[in-house]
Structure formats: C-alpha cells, structure tokens
Design goal:
Elements (H helix, E strand, L loop, with lengths): L2 E6 L7 H15 L3 E6 L26 H10 L2 E7 L7 H8 L6 E2 L9 E2 L4 E7 L9 H14 L3 E8 L16 H11 L7
Parallel strand pairs: 1-2, 1-3, 3-6, 6-7
Antiparallel strand pairs: 4-5
Length: 197
C-alpha cells in the first residue's frame, strides 16, 4: 500500500476544497493506504526567494513550516494537491509550496530537455474546486499542474478531479449539493487499482 500526502491549499477549514480532500482521503484509507493531510493555512510556507542557496538538496534559508514538511514529502509515494481555484489557477499557498521543492532537487549532469536538475520520483494528483463550471474554468490550473509538476518536476500523474459549480463564494460551501464528494471518494479508493482495492 502507499503513503499519500494531501496538501490542502484552501482557506476555509471546512470549505469545498477541504471537504473534497476529506472524501478522497476516506476512500484512500478504506483502500488500505496511509493518508496524511496537511493544511497550508496551519503551516506557513513562504514563496521561493530565488536566492539559489538551497540548490542541490541544501536546506532553504527561510525559517518557516516547509522544513517540517520535507520529511513528509520524502516518504510520500504520492502527493495530492488540493486547491480552490483562485484567479483561474492554483492558490498562492499551493504554488508557494510547489516552488519550494527546489531544495529537494539533486544535481543531474544530463537532464532532460527543459529541466535543470532531478527531483524525487513521486506520483501526484490534483483536486480542485471552483464556483464556476465553464468549459474553460480549470484550463489555466490544469496547464500549470501538467507543465510544472508532471512535465518539469517529473511526477507521475494519477489523475485530476475538477469540481466546478460549488456555489457562490460569498455563501456557505455548496459542494455537498453536487456529486463531487462521491467522485472524490471513489477517486481515492481507486487511485491505485493495482493495489487490490
């Protein structure tokens, strides 16, 4: 079975994204996987400074919560990025978390096209929520996920759940009125179908 780390980049403790991640976690746990969820609202992770001090697995010079997340990232077989849609892409908290992966990269004398270093091999998945549900609602977020995490860092995509139509952002979370929570549960339960779940 797998170690799954869910990184919650939403702002509301029981908001649409938190509920979606919880449903995914329930399914994954029932399938026998070890699941831990961390909230970037509770653990401060600042954006990358671009100072290059951490190049090739040296610790980041910033004193924040990312350091306590590094061991969790290293032992995880899969990282699930759970984010609400903010200005048509991932939340700033989520993006800051991804930027800080730079300190996990190793030197690679022969990197593939477009990459400068070698990152740990992980599986990944994307869970997102939004108020809108147009055909283009998640286009920019999916593009970032695919290019940054899959194409550049080299993670192996296990799938996405794009939960649009979760209701007006001024009101209470409406995801319970959709079928997204059931879909998230099934996604978690079957994310590794070869593990016998």
């Amino acid at each position: 079975m797998k170690n799954i780390l869910i990184v919650l980049g939403g702002g509301r403790p029981n908001g649409n994204t938190a509920q979606l991640a919880k449903a995914f976690a329930k399914g994954a746990k029932e399938a026998g996987h070890s699941v831990e969820t961390v909230s970037l609202c509770k653990i401060e992770v600042k954006g990358c400074l671009g100072c290059n001090a951490c190049r090739y697995e040296k610790p980041c010079i910033q004193k924040d919560g990312f350091h306590e997340l590094v061991p969790k990232i290293k032992v995880a077989d899969m990282i699930v990025f759970a984010s609400p849609l903010y200005f048509w892409t991932l939340s700033a908290r989520t993006k800051a978390f991804i930027e800080r992966f730079y300190c996990l990269a190793q030197e690679d004398p022969n990197p593939p096209l477009g990459r400068y270093e070698r990152y740990p091999v992980k599986d990944c998945a994307l869970l997102m929520t939004s108020a809108d549900d147009y055909f283009w609602t998640f286009e920019q977020a999916v593009s970032y996920y695919q290019f940054a995490l899959v194409n550049y860092i080299g993670f192996h995509d296990r799938g996405m759940l794009l939960a649009g139509g979760c209701g007006d952002t001024n009101g209470r979370p409406q995801i319970g009125r959709t079928g997204h929570l059931e879909r998230a549960y099934r996604f978690g339960k079957n994310v590794y179908p070869d593990c016998g779940n």
